[in-house]
TrEMBL record:
<dbReference type="Pfam" id="PF00905">
    <property type="entry name" value="Transpeptidase"/>
</dbReference>
<dbReference type="InterPro" id="IPR001264">
    <property type="entry name" value="Glyco_trans_51"/>
</dbReference>
<keyword id="KW-0328">Glycosyltransferase</keyword>
<comment type="similarity">
    <text>In the C-terminal section; belongs to the transpeptidase family.</text>
</comment>
<dbReference type="GO" id="GO:0071555">
    <property type="term" value="P:cell wall organization"/>
</dbReference>
<dbReference type="Pfam" id="PF00912">
    <property type="entry name" value="Transgly"/>
</dbReference>
<comment type="similarity">
    <text>In the N-terminal section; belongs to the glycosyltransferase 51 family.</text>
</comment>
<keyword id="KW-0133">Cell shape</keyword>
<protein>
    <submittedName>
        <fullName>Transglycosylase domain-containing protein</fullName>
        <ecNumber>2.4.-.-</ecNumber>
    </submittedName>
</protein>
<dbReference type="GO" id="GO:0009002">
    <property type="term" value="F:serine-type D-Ala-D-Ala carboxypeptidase activity"/>
</dbReference>
<dbReference type="InterPro" id="IPR023346">
    <property type="entry name" value="Lysozyme-like_dom_sf"/>
</dbReference>
<keyword id="KW-0511">Multifunctional enzyme</keyword>
<feature type="domain" description="Penicillin-binding protein transpeptidase">
    <location>
        <begin position="361"/>
        <end position="650"/>
    </location>
</feature>
<keyword id="KW-0573">Peptidoglycan synthesis</keyword>
<dbReference type="GO" id="GO:0008658">
    <property type="term" value="F:penicillin binding"/>
</dbReference>
<dbReference type="GO" id="GO:0006508">
    <property type="term" value="P:proteolysis"/>
</dbReference>
<dbReference type="InterPro" id="IPR050396">
    <property type="entry name" value="Glycosyltr_51/Transpeptidase"/>
</dbReference>
Amino acid sequence: MGRAKDASAAFGRLIAFLAVSGLCGALVAGIFMPVAAATWGATNGTVQFFDNLPSELSVSPPDLVTKMVAADGSEIATLYNENRTPVSLDAMSPNIKNAIIAVEDYRFYDHGGIDTAGVLRAVIANVKGDRQGASTLTQQYVANVLKENLLAQGQDPTVVLNGQKSIGDKLREMKLSIALEKKNSKDDILAGYLNIVFFNTHAYGIQAASQYFFSVNAKDLTLPQAALLAGVVNGPSVYDPTARPGPSVERRNLVLDAMLKHGYISQKEHDDAVATPLELKVNPPRQGCAYAVQAQYFCDFVLHQILNDPAYGASPDERYQKVTRSGLTITTTLDPRLQGPAQAQVDSTAGPNPDKWGTALVTVQPGTGRVLSMAQNTRILPGQGKDFVTSYNFGVDRTDANGNDLGGAGGFQPGSAMKPVTLAAWLGEGKPTDQIVNAAQRRYPLNHPWRDTCTRVIGAYDSSTVASLGTSGDLQNDEPQWYRPMTVREGVYQSINTATFASAAGLNDFCDIQRAADALGMHNGEGAGAKLDMSVLGNLLGGPNIAPLTMASAYATFAANGTYCAPWSITDVTDSHGKRIGGQAQACQPGSIKPDVAKAVTNVLQDVLTKGSGYNIKDNAGKTIYLGVPDAAKTGTNEFNSETWVIGYTRGLATASYFGEALGNPEDHLGRNVIVNGRFWPVVDGAYIAGPQWAYYMQKAIGLYDRGPFDAPPPSLITPGKK
């Protein structure tokens, strides 16, 4: 039985020999003797097939690494399908060039794309039972290019490199190789091969492989390092030095033997290299926003600005492929000088955080809309140094961040930080800040005579009708002493609910509140154009969820004397050749809020920090924290004390500071009788934790941007009767 099997195997090898010999004969005839070959009846069909094959290799650019960088050019993150950084041949060590030629194709500089002597030699070896390949480096390069072309078309490239290739597949590679050699120099082909070849799932091309396995550039590879990498390409999984060091060193030494045999190294160089131990210095690539060098969540926000933009492709998948395959450079508005302090501050605010309190800081530049920093006290992946792990972005709308049903947190209830909207509406009608309103009034029943031209006001505060109509009870303030007449100014800086409602009731048109909110760019945290409905009474006091980025941009409008600028984060997107293919443009609306109105709002919000609710922004010693420059702000707290804010600004920076229940139900995680960072809080207010977070961060940031005085408002918007 054993003899029969041996005979069968020998017969099979003989058939293979004859078949391949015929193929080689046909191939040689087709290349060198087309006229004579046409008379070979047995090979005529093969020659015609060969003649009809394409002879022009279409080279789709191989996958390249996209880089996202901050405004100063510093790296934020890399994004890719294949980690590849092409380099020129002179940026590669001679050791790797010599090693790859010696072991893979020592006749590389002698043949014209295919090595007929090598083919025949491989046929004879295979007939003898010794497996031997015959592909030249040019053929291997062609095979890799064809693989990349299939990848670019979204097709399965497996068969091109390691599947069962047909004779037609091999003939096509051979003809393309011959044509390529006629068109390109040997050095160009060698460089192309070394830049495209697969070494590891983390490393495509020699530069990425050098960095991954040895943490060096390709030009600095030593002889033993180069020999090892040249050996890896023959079987990246079999000879992976990180997983199989023994076989990889054996293969390295075979490469060194080949280099010695073909005269690339001396006997001493060979022996020294063989004696060198395997000394890896693995440098795993940090791909994606989860491994960003800085600003993980800002990175994710920027990425989704591109993935949501049809300018980069017809479908989300096409846009994703463009980002991860095309070697783009995405230059952003991020200012690392602000991002570093912001991240340090949010990390320290909550400290050890078993109760999973969320903190966030988002800064935009008034008058431009540039997003300068975005930080929160979590990490995207476990083991990154924080015990609070989430892919939710606290700073942005739900549609502006990570997908997979996660995304942005969708905003939080801003509480009294919404009161400047009603103030802006009041001032927009020409009414002064120091006019007295009746903050003693607590009931606003369903039939209250609101003056509105565009909508019907929804909701009521009236304890007398609670049982029968299900409306809310009487309007509440935090403390009982504020139910009295007071100026609109005092009502804002002391954050008095009844004063805000008295102001709304005194408007000529309640719909001016909606107009003010729209002019400030305010919208629901769900994103995608979700409207913020200010006809709902509870929304005057901060009932809807709004993202910190939206709040910072709204307040930046006051800082910029009424010019609203949509927040933007991408200055330029360039392709792998440096050509600009995209980016966002500054989109500002001068006079979105009347300049004098914005100045008057700022004038009131300055009082918040000197004698109002912001006066409670204190350090651990109980001392009020001042920035020492002109500034304005508003605190905000929801009714459960679980969502707390300070949004404040100077002329040059507007920052939203948030502390609270960022992921769960705000009704289930009350900010009362809690311990935060080792300190007990009977109740959490916007000024208490979000306030110092804002102040400490702004102290570090304000010197980098305009910190001059605000413009004074006209007297007519301050004092009743003034003109």
